[in-house]
Amino acid sequence: MNKRIFLPLLVLLLAASSCTSVRVVTDYDRNANFGTYQTFAFYKPGIDKAKISDLDKKRILRAIDAELMAKGMQKNEKPTILVSIFTKESERVDVYHNNFGWGWGWNPWWYGGYYGNSVSRTTEGTLYIDFIDANTNELVWQGMGTSRLITSGDVEAKEERIKEIVHEILAKYPPNQ
User: In CATH, what number does 21-93+120-170 get?
Assistant: First the structure.
């Protein structure tokens, strides 16, 4: 395949694949007995502080609820674990140095293809999911997922992205001790 066609396709493929991934990091208390946490409830004071729309909060909480129930946990008025969330949003700027182009040109210093830069801006969000021991009120597990956000009006795509982020974070719970 011609290098002039292959390189732009490779850059496009890498950019597209990096947009769909969720980067996840978790941390936990080594002394916590995760086998005893069978029931959960949402920690309203913590959730109320999250700086996102109420609709997005509902989407996140529904996704967490579904994931925890799929793991065999039950929602309960007297939970063993409290679930809280926290969010951050930032703009990601990527600058690509392109040593290829779509045409030929001439000036006194060179003759050849177009060489230039392109800039890509995306909004990234980070979702923190905290598990707090209901008896001791201490944080025992935290998962953090960072991904590109859906900022367009496509509600279905936004909901799917939230489910993907929550799923990837909670795939790491409980920790392998």
Answer: 3.30.160.670
pLDDT 10s digit of each residue in the chain, 177 long?
Answer: 555 554 444 444 444 444 458 999 999 999 999 999 999 999 999 999 988 899 999 999 999 999 999 999 999 999 999 999 999 877 666 666 665 555 555 555 555 555 566 666 667 899 999 999 999 999 999 999 999 888 778 899 999 999 999 999 999 999 985
| Residue 13: Cβ within 10 Å count | 10
**How far apart, in Å, are the Cα atoms of 73 and each of 51, 83, 107, 149, 168?**
27, 12, 68, 28, 17
- How far is the C-alpha of 130 from the C-alpha of 110, rounded, in Å? 57
CB 144 within 8 A of CB 124: no
Quickly list H helices, 26-154. 44-48, 54-70
Omega of the bond leading into 108 within 30 degrees of 0 (cis): no
Q: Which two tokens stand for residue 41?
A: 């409830």
Instruction: Please identify which residue in the block is written with the tokens 């923190």.
Output: 128
Per the CB < 8 A criterion, the answer to whether 154 and 174 are in contact is no
Q: Report whether 127 contacts 21 (CB < 8 A).
A: no
Tally Cβ neighbours within 10 Å of residue 36.
Answer: 11
pTM: 0.73
